[in-house]
Amino acid sequence: MTVLRRDTAPVPAWRAALYVLATVALVAAAAWLAWNTRQTDDTARVEAAGKLQLLNELAARWDLAVARAKTEPTQALQADANIVPSIRRAMSDLQALAAATGSPALAANLPGVDAAIADRIALGASISRAAAGLGEALSSAVANSAIRTDAGVGQGALHPPEAAAAELLAFWGDAGVRRRPQVEAALARLSADSAMLEPARAVLDGKSQLESALERFALSTAGPRLGAMTTAFAAEVQATIQRQQLFRTYLLFYSAALLVLLGWIASRLVASYRVIARINGALHAANENLEGKVEQRTRELSDALAHLKDSEAQLIQSEKMSSLGQMVAGVAHEINTPIAYVKNSLGSVDGRLDAIGRMTGECEKLLAMLDSGETPDAMLDLQLAQLSAAARGLGGSTAVAELGDLVKDGLYGVDQIGQIVTHLRDFSRLDRGKVQRFDVHEGIDSTLRLAQHLLKAVHIERRFGTDGHLVGSPSQLNQVLLNLITNAAQAIGPDGGTITLTTRGDEQELILEVIDTGAGIQPEVLPRIFDPFFTTKGVGQGTGLGLSICYKIIAQHGGRIDVASRPGLGTTFSIRLPRTGVQAASA
């Protein structure tokens, strides 16, 4: 059995908390590693890399097309029509992919690349327009020179317009700056009204501006920014791949550690299984005698319950006897005064019986002497003197009146004792213990009469606002009234106060309230005052069953008792009772 108790001892709270924390930590670590090594959808990254590659290719084609605008003006226009829309679409797709992938590299570089490409598009558009204008001017100048298309420069003698057109074509295809003096000289030989002079001047002046714009286009930051973004994105993808590989390595080692831990746990489980098997064997052995022990324990509990019921009945009877003792004390106190009347009156009468007897004897002697007719006058005078002396010993002429007063005092005392007995009978109703029609107001008057010795310092107010009749057990309801009035008087104490008894209600219900101006009940105690054996009185001053019995009696009458109290201001007990139809049980 010692081993059984040791093996089944509860796990300490700190150890259980440690197990829980360790389990949570292991699960959290596994989840973290699994999250970092999860198979991600790289479609967006692949598309983003493809868009970057496409943008680099389009940028290279764009650079080549714009650079050829020096010799072929239409190339710039074709780039604006074909390449620029593709670049715009690729940038738009790339921005959407940056949001989908959450790439820091794309998010950091895209705004700068987008702004640089926008500037370059604007510059390319201006280059296209300038190249187109210069191409038209060159075509116009060549057309107005009437140059033969099959004649080359330097083959035979050329007319001035033809020579100027040849120099202008050479100027357009060359670097421009070296050929500018030759073109100026050729144009100087033309007449002032030559049709090719104006377009030739436009080509001559616009070529240098076009070359400057082409140089700015070539030096645009769009290309380097795009390359930097491509490099950063590639590095980011590579870092992500390396990080996943690193966490896969961590996960591998973590899995191995978990396997080792699981092996240790399995060994502990095997040991625990052996302990459980041993415990089961002990339990099996204990179960063989369990039924007999349960029956024995049931008998013990039944005996204890019966003993408890007997104890409860004795305590309830003790409380009833305590209430009866208070009632008897009040009755004894009330009977003492009329008994004193009777005792004093009878004592006074007893004290004069001898004198009455002597006077009666002397009267009889005198009558006998008078009846004989032979008694001397001297003896008659002597007998009259003795009779007078006996009368004076009795008290003279007022003796009869005094004796009558004494008899009246005795009869008054006897009448008071009869009234007290009547109140006692009305209170207990021992001759009418069954449920019957009962006047609560009469019960209140009887209870107050019997508890008068407790109410010397208490002012009683009756506020009866309804008919007091209802169906119930008079003795039980009088016991409730006695308990409540006694408690109210004790709460008020010797300093004095007021107990107010009120009734109100309707045809269905009677409400009785007992209100005192005593010390009140503390809020923490108030919910427990109806509990059996609970009391706030000192040891030996109460059983704690008075209010519990009151609660039980009112419940048996189908009613309800409530209490409201404020410390220092007093307490109100409210009783609600149905007027008819309730059969109270014996309490």
Structure description:
- 70% of the residues lie in helices and 8% in strands.
- It contains 15 helices and 7 strands.
- The N terminus is likely disordered.
- The chain has a 5-stranded mixed sheet, covered by helices on one side. A two-stranded antiparallel ribbon has the order 1-3.
- It folds into 4 domains: 80 residues; 193 residues; 88 residues; 145 residues, Histidine kinase-like ATPase, C-terminal domain (Heat Shock Protein 90).
- The radius of gyration is 65 Å and the shape is elongated.
- The chain has 587 residues and is an alpha+beta fold.
- α6 runs antiparallel to α7 and α10 packs antiparallel against α11.
- A hairpin with a 3-residue loop joins β6 and β7.
Q: Any chance you could write out the topology, listing elements then pairs?
A:
Layout: H1 2-7, H2 13-36, H3 43-67, H4 74-101, H5 104-144, H6 160-173, H7 180-188, H8 197-218, H9 222-288, H10 290-372, H11 377-394, H12 399-428, E1 436-439, H13 440-450, E2 458-464, E3 469-472, H14 474-492, E4 497-505, E5 509-516, H15 546-556, E6 560-566, E7 570-578
Parallel strand pairs: 2-4
Antiparallel strand pairs: 1-3, 4-5, 5-7, 6-7
Assembly type: single chain
Order of helices and strands: HHHHHHHHHHHHEHEEHEEHEE
The best one-word shape is elongated
Terminal-residue CA separation: 50 Å
Return the average pLDDT rounded to an integer.
Answer: 76
Main pleated-sheet profile: 5 strands, mixed
List low-pLDDT spans: 1-8, 147-156, 429-433
Fraction of residues in helices? 55-70%
Report the structural category.
Answer: alpha+beta
Number of individual domains: 4
Number of separate strands: 7
Number of discrete helical segments = 15
Q: For the largest beta sheet, what order do the strands appear in spatially?
A: 2-4-5-7-6
Q: Indicate the proportion of strand residues.
A: 5-15%
Question: Radius of gyration, Cα only, in angstroms?
Answer: 65 Å
